[in-house]
């Protein structure tokens, strides 16, 4: 092989490797089950899911909150990950909203849901991986993994869901009273609401 061809091959290989590396970032810090810090100083919030909240002030954290963070640490701390965006690219806190992929192609968002470390957080814009996430949640619920290992029925006779926001509420919640007849859906239990892909209202905390 001629020296010129060898040089061209080396240059092309270097360019390809640079382009591939440019699509990945190293995870420098894990805040909790669904938020990380990358080596480019960008905070990333996993899109389409929500993990139990950790009380960073030393109070009582939600059930499985620390387990979710530990599992997230095992998955991504120090690892190289790539991001894929959807309709929303940032949340109100300025964090990037993304599907996060490991180098082996596995999606971290879906892995957390499948292990029962998070519940699905859908929105009215639709998520490109919404079906995958919901299917992962339904499997975790059936197997009673993680957050689903505790009874999920709740103490209300029924719950009201909003087809527009994909949130469900206690019957007496002020937001439940604003749901139009067109968008309203009734669930017999919290379990039924979660299984359909709805998330609890942050106001009434059903």
Describe the protein.
With 206 residues, this protein is an alpha+beta fold. The protein has 2 domains: 23-150, OB fold (Dihydrolipoamide Acetyltransferase, E2P) (Beta Barrel); 151-206, DNA Methylphosphotriester Repair Domain, CATH 3.40.10. The protein has 5 helices and 11 strands; from the N terminus they run H-E-E-E-E-H-E-E-H-E-H-E-E-E-H-E. The protein has helices at residues 3-22, 65-76, 108-114, 130-142, 190-195; strands at 25-30, 35-38, 43-46, 49-50, 80-84, 96-102, 119-120, 159-162, 167-169, 184-187, 199-200. The strands form 3 sheets. The chain has a 5-stranded mixed barrel. Strands 10-8-9-11 form a 4-stranded mixed beta sheet. Strand 1 and strand 2 (35-38) form a beta hairpin. Helix 3 (108-114) runs parallel beside helix 4 (130-142). The longest helix is centred in the N-terminal third of the chain and has 20 residues, at 3-22. The protein is globular, with a radius of gyration of 21 Å. It starts with a helix and ends in a 6-residue tail after the last strand.
> Uncertain spans, ≥5 residues at pLDDT below 50?
6-21
Q: How do the strands of the widest beta sheet line up side by side?
A: 1-2-3-6-5
The top-level CATH class of the largest domain is: Mainly Beta
SS field, number of helical segments? 5
pLDDT averaged over residues? 90
Looking at the overall shape, the CATH architecture of the largest domain is: Beta Barrel
Proportion of residues in β-strands: 15-25%
How many E-type strands? Answer: 11
